[in-house]
Amino acid sequence: KIWEQLAPLFPQFKYNTSDCRFLGAPIDYVIFNHYTEVKEGAQASIEIVFMDVKTGDSQLTPSQKVIKKAVENGRVRWETLRLK
Length: 84
What we know:
Blueprint: H1 2-6, E1 20-22, E2 29-33, H2 35-39, E3 47-51, H3 62-72
Antiparallel strand pairs: 1-2, 2-3
């Protein structure tokens, strides 16, 4: 589990660490790519990336494969919960 948290320090990690949120389970990261630029006033588009970090020969778990498929098939949406 330590490698997952250290992933942003490796050269293969191509995202701004400020844009990344570590979850750990069921996937490792949700990345709001370019969010820092937008927050600072830039006119950029944000891309949301779901990422899992693997080392060696490790593979996605069955539940991670289901999540990956949902993202690939566009079964992702926004919801606002308003509490009064």
